[in-house]
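tool=predict chain=A
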Amino acid sequence: MRFEKPKKKSGRPDFAAGRIAELERQLATETNETRKSELLSEINEWQRSRPQPKRDERSKSQDRH
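tool=predict ok
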């Protein structure tokens, strides 16, 4: 019986999404306007640097048909 190797996953996209969610929770409870702008800036940075998940091979082959 042949076993397929598990696909390697990068934890980075999920990590970035989790960090963005945490910053948004902090933003929702923050009252200091200066801190709010800092949090918004940090959220924007994380959103820009978030890597896009790679498409798997199945979806690439389906696009060709």
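The radius of gyration is 18 Å. The helical segments are 12-29, 33-49, 57-64.
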